[in-house]
Amino acid sequence: MTKAELINLLNKLNIPVNEGIQNDKDTNVYPRIVFWEYGWESIVASDKEYNTKVIYQISFFSKNPRNNKLLELKRELNNQKIFPYIEHEYIQKEKYFHSFFPIEVVENIE
Q1: In whole angstroms, what is the distance from residue 29 CA to residue 41 CA?
Q2: Long-range contacts of 64-72 (CB under 8 A, 24+ apart)
Q3: 8-state DSSP, 31
Q4: Consecutive 10-residue runs of the chain (110 residues): their mean pLDDT?
Q5: Is 94 helix (H, G, I), strand (E, B) or coil?
C-alpha cells in the first residue's frame, strides 16, 4: 500500500481525517481519524536503499468501541490483505474511545 492509497481508503469513510495533528474544528466530532508517521525503515537491495517503509499510526476516535465506521475501516483494510492488530482505550475524562493501530506503507521520502 502507498500513502496515497492509504489516504484514499481513509477518506472513503466520509468522516474527518487529518494528518499529523487534530484539526481544531473537528476536536469534538465523532467518529474521526488522525494519522501520523512515527517510523521509517529503509528497504535495501544490493547494499543500496531504494525505498522506505513508513509506519503510520492510525487513531480512530468514537463514542462507542465498535463504531460502524471503525468496522468499515477494518473491512476495507482486510479487503486489501491488511489485518492490523487494533487496540482500544477509553478516555474517561472526555468520555470517548480511542482505537489505534500501525500501518506500513511504501513511500519515497526523499
Answers
A1: 33
A2: 64/97, 65/90, 65/97, 65/99, 67/30, 67/31, 67/97, 67/99, 69/13, 69/15, 69/31, 70/31, 70/99, 72/13
A3: S
A4: 95 95 74 96 88 96 95 97 96 94 91
A5: coil
